[in-house]
Every structure is written in C-alpha cells, then in structure tokens.
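ARCHIVE RECORD
Type: protein–small molecule complex
Small molecule: flavin mononucleotide
Source of inputs: curated submission
Record status: active
Notes field left blank by submitter.
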Amino acid sequence: MSAPGAPTPGASSSGEPQGPEGRRPRVVLGVGGGIAAYKACELLRLFTESGHDVRVVPTREALRFVGEPTWAALSGNRVSAEVWDDVHEVPHVRIGQRADLVVVAPATADLLAKAAHGLAGDLLTSTLLTARCPVVFAPAMHTEMWEHPATRANVATLRERGSLVIEPAVGRLTGADSGRGRLPDPADIFAYCRRVLAPGAPAGSGADSGGASQGLAQDVQGQDMRGRDGHGRTALGREARAATLPGHEVPAQEIAGQGGPGQGVAPPGGEAAAPDPSAPRDGGASPDASSVRGRRDLAGRRVVVSAGGTREAIDPVRFIGNRSSGLQGYALAETAAARGAEVTLISANVTLDDPAGVKVIRVESALDMREAVLEAAAHADAVVMAAAVADFRPAVQAGSKIKKTDSVPEPIYLVKNPDILAELCDRRRDEPESMPAVIAGFAAETDDVLANGRAKLRRKGCDLLVVNQVGAGLAFGTPDNAAVVLGADGSATEIPKGPKHALADVVWDLVAARLPEPGNGGAPAS
Ligand SMILES: Cc1cc2nc3c(=O)[nH]c(=O)nc-3n(C[C@H](O)[C@H](O)[C@H](O)COP(=O)(O)O)c2cc1C
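STRUCTURE (tokenized, with ligand):
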C-alpha cells in the first residue's frame, strides 16, 4: 500500500499533486454522524498535507461528534452542513459539480440509506446527487447494522450505480463490541482514494467543463468514463481498451519469433517485438499512476483473487513453501477494488496489510486454498489465481516436531496437490451458469517461458494465463514485474517491465473485455 502523505500520482515536478488543468485536486470529504467521525480528521490531514484542496461537508449529526471549527481549521475552507449558508454561491450544487473526488468517511447506515434513495435534505446528500466524479463511501457502524438486509440493499444499490463502497474492517466498535463494521484505517482509505484519483481521467467538475449536465465524460484516450452513481455502469469496449491498455494486445504471431499459438516465442523484455509506441503505457510510472482515474468498469462485478504462497506442513513447525510475497496478488485485489469490483482475496501466508475495501480470507495450505477458492468462485464473475500453490505436499504430516537424531532422517514422501486452476475450469465446463465467466491463472517460469505457458494454458483450460519469467529483478518479492498474457483465443499481450499495479490494471482490462455484459446472455462486453 502506498505511503500516506506521499504525493498524489500525477504529481508535478515540485511533488504537488495535480488535478485537471494543473490545479490541486478538489476533494469533498463528507462526514457522517458516527463515532468514527474523529478519524476523518486524520484522513483530512493526509489529504491536505499531500496538497489536495479539501472541502469538508459534515452532516448535522456529524457536527455533534466533531465541531465545525475543527474541520474549518484543518481544511482551511468554509464548513457547513446546510444548504442555507452562502446561498448566493449555490453550494448544494456547486460543491459536487466542482469536485474531483467525493469521499464519505464515516458513512453511517443512515447516510448510506439516504444516498441510495437519492434524498437531498442537507448539503452532503445534495452534493452526492450533483457530483459527477468518483464517489467513495467508507462505511462504519455496528455489525448488526452493516449486515441488516436494508443496509445490504442500500450498499448494493450504490455499487450498482458505480459508487465505490469500501468494506468496513473487523475490530473494536463503539462500547465493548467488536466485529465487522469498523472504519478502515484512514491511511488505507487515503491510499484507496489516491488510486481512484490517479491521472488520466476527466475533471470531475461539470461546472468548469460543462460535463455535469452531460453526466458523461471522456478521458484523454477517449474512454467512456460514465458509470458514476446514477449513470449506469461502464464496460470497457474493445476499441477503448485498445487505446487505453498500458500493455499492448497483439495477435500472437506479431510477437517476434512467434509462429502462432502453441509455439515458443521470446520472453518479455527479450527478443519480443517492440510494443506499439502509440499505445499508452505506464513506462516506470508509480503504481498508482497506472489506474485511469475514476474508471469503474468492474462496478457490480464480483472477483476473486488468490495471492501469496501456500505452505505444506512437514510437522507443526516445518513446511515446504515458496518465495511468493503476495505483492502481485494484492496489487490485483487493490486495482480491482479501485475499479469498483467487489473483491474477495484468498491470501496464503502474506505479511502485507489487508487492502482497503477487500474481503480477505486467510489460508495456509493448498488444500485450504482449494476450499476457499472453490467456495468464493461459485458466486464470482471472474477469478484470477495469482497465488503460488505448491504442486506437492508431504504424504504424512508428523503430529509433533521431528526430532534431530544421530541417524539419517526418514525420507519425506510427497503426494500431488489438487490443481485448483484446472479444477475451476473443469467445474465451469460442467456447470457454466454457476461458475466465473473469466478464469485467469499465473505461470512463473524459469525457462522456455512462453512455450511452457502455452502448454499450461491448454492443459488448464483457462481464458487467460499471465506468464512471467522468474528472476532478473522480476516476479517474486520485487515491486516490478513483466509478463505476456496469453489468451485462449490465441492472443498475446505483452506487458513490459513496470510496477505490479500497472500489470494488474492490464490483466483487469483483459478480464473486463471478456466478461459478459450484464444481462447479455453470456456475450462478452466488447
Ligand atoms: C454515540 C453514538 C455513536 C454512533 N455511531 C454510529 C456509527 O458508528 N454508525 C452509524 O451508522 N450510526 C451511528 N450512530 C447513529 C447515528 O448517529 C444516527 O443514525 C444518525 O442519524 C446518523 O446521521 P447521519 O445520517 O448524519 O450520518 C451513533 C449514535 C450515537 C449516539
């Protein structure tokens, strides 16, 4: 996760974040009347100290928790909960129109309900109706309130309309209670918002550009950025995708040395043909810079990502493991969440912080991983298996620690682990309606990278296989990665060396293009 306080992606040479027209990004911080309102002060500080222009819009109830002078002093801007102040400036319309991002933290159950139903009885709810920029809700409430069918329905409605609703964290709640419903750490909310604010998308402001009345904006590459609350979802079309991909999807035979599907070609960054220079790419940009701001083409989609490396127990203290850090899988989960997906991350032995807005399920062994993935996949639109799952496990696991003796230890016999990716694909063949429309896997190879990748793609029966070469500063435990994504349709998309978040964005572009349009009877979105 990005460091709090670091400059926003798209920062100027001075390090200041840049919004549209080179100005500071305008953030509206909506604050609901929950006990966690005081934590919004920390979020506000993170935004202001990293150069954002923040307008705090608390609700009347929020002001019972933290007063107006605190918000005004910390933001340096006027603060009101009412539509009746400064009426000559028409704040109930202008604040939303001019915003580049609206983030509501904490979002109470009451506020989520009002937003879902389009009520506009105060300045914040009016702002939510007039904003044409990305809207992020960070809910916080007691578990019972969060799990109530009314709240679930309100959250589903908001997500359906393109709003980003972060999953609350698990932990201590008001009073002695604990459970799911805690406001995520302000630093995590901030990092999430920075990804949503990353450059490349239009100014959220309709007031300046006239875009507000259209409710539709075009990013620099001409991508349809509609999909914000109340304006329907966006599916990234193939034409738009071709223009916006950081990676470059080319017919397999366009890659040097490649005679077509099934034949070996040069590894990425090696002898592969130079990517089309006209295709926009990340080229060493910061991880966050890879996301098109406000792109929410995965809104309303459920995705499952696996990350990390499994551990296969030898005895209670020893295991067979691998070098996977989980960085790539976590980047995939963060990126999908920032693009609006409801993400379940199955995490094997990873020490990274839980990404904000992502449901994390922790597992240890390949068998645990299989169980968790199969269960989550049954409700998902797409699965991306980035975890390094052990192929083998000890046939017998000692019940107590194997003692060191003078004699040679007993050999450890291995048995095969289930092939989770292949099993997912097999199940989909048998019951296509209840299984994910898109299944993607990863292959880490040390030699004959693409030849092995193609063979694996055919063997597993998945739609996409992200093939990367291990070593040379890539793959395990490093911030960078490079890959070729092989498609079952014979395509090959080269992703040059760059941040793992950039690679993740390309993978989601490829997944999104293969997802059926909702209610489209299985036809792909593009
Ligand atoms: C001490 C206290 C703490 C509260 N904390 C929360 C909370 O964390 N989440 C929530 O949804 N409601 C909470 N409530 C209830 C809200 O304050 C109440 O629903 C209010 O109408 C929400 O106002 P809003 O729509 O302006 O956010 C709390 C109430 C009290 C008195």
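CURATOR ANNOTATION: The first helix runs from residue 39 to 49.
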